[in-house]
Structure to design on (348 residues):
């Protein structure tokens, strides 16, 4: 082989190495995060970007099913997402999640044991907890003074005609109607799901809108009441002191653990792990609870919060209230029961 040819091959190898290194360096400078609205404060985003030099590109979704659809398309570009408990199980079964490299997430040791090894991911192969919330009813007391104690007070209340919103979420919204009738949010009984569907079809005649981001519509007085997540209700209450009340209905509601996952084939895996580890730091969680007003998952966070937050019953419900809450479970083939009922509710 001639020296010229050998030199050319060596140069080609060097250039290829440089190109590869440049690509990796470029990739490391950004990470694509898909997350619920109002779930990451601008302060935390700025801090992560300053500390690491990695830019976070954020996209939002309004339901777990919307996130799933984005990922199934195969071209979402998402690196890190924050699905709720049952959706972690769905996505892992569909081979849509990467195994987490736990050696790159040392802050996992700060997580409270009660939020680990859940039935949707028993070995935490694919997920680590981010935050937990409940779903109930928020009322703007400037617009509605009446009693709200149950789901019936929202779904079947002539005084709220044209003045209330429901979550744009198949399992949460059907779950509310199921709870109203005394059924489990995880029932697979077709008659019970049908009864919930009929109640929602009736409620829809008086409904103002389906909306999963309820902070602004409550504060702007677009609705007097809304089915909502506790974190959104508490953020709305903070913006309108003394006006927004959050109620967990007497029949109970749902409790969700939202989780950090890495999407299969993520292009920025190293940056994704750095982001997850950062979000599970004590400083990041204290900021998160103060701004998002969702339940903490780390061992020492509650004790480090201001007293008014430690004692906030909407943020930390009483034990007897927690016993009435259910986590939504993946129903496998029976998911079609819910999907068909929801399609009918949304299209009629």
């Amino acid at each position: 082989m001639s020296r010229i040819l050998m030199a050319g091959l060596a140069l080609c190898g060097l250039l290829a190495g440089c190109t590869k290194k440049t690509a990796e360096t470029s990739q490391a400078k950004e990470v694509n995060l898909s997350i619920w609205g109002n779930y990451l404060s601008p302060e935390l985003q700025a801090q992560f970007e300053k500390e690491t030099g990695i830019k976070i590109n954020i996209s939002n979704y309004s339901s777990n099913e919307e996130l799933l659809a984005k990922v199934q398309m195969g071209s979402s570009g998402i690196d890190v997402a924050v699905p709720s408990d049952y959706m972690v199980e769905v996505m892992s079964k569909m081979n849509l999640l990467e195994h987490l490299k736990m050696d790159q997430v040392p802050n996992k040791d700060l997580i409270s044991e009660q939020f680990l090894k859940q039935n949707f991911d028993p070995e935490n192969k694919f997920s680590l907890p981010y935050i937990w919330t409940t779903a109930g009813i928020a009322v703007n007391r400037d617009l509605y003074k009446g009693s709200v104690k149950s789901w019936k007070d929202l779904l079947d209340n002539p005084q709220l005609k044209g003045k209330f919103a429901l979550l744009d979420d198949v399992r949460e919204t059907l779950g509310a109607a199921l709870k109203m009738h005394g059924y489990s949010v995880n029932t697979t009984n077709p008659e019970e799901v049908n009864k919930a569907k009929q109640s929602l079809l009736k409620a829809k005649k008086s409904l103002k809108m389906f909306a999963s981001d309820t902070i602004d519509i409550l504060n702007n007085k677009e609705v007097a009441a809304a089915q909502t997540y506790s974190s959104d209700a508490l953020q709305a209450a903070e913006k309108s002191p003394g006006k927004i009340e959050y109620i967990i209905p007497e029949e109970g509601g749902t409790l969700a653990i939202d989780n950090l996952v890495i999407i299969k084939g993520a292009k920025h895996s190293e940056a994704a792990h750095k982001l997850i580890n950062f979000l599970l730091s004590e400083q990041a969680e204290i900021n998160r609870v103060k701004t998002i007003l969702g339940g903490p998952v780390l061992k020492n966070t509650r004790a480090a919060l201001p007293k008014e937050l430690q004692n906030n019953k909407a943020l930390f419900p009483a034990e007897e209230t927690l016993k009435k809450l259910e986590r939504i479970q993946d129903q496998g083939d029976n998911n079609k029961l819910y999907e068909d009922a929801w399609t009918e509710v949304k299209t009629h």
Observations:
- The radius of gyration is 23 Å.
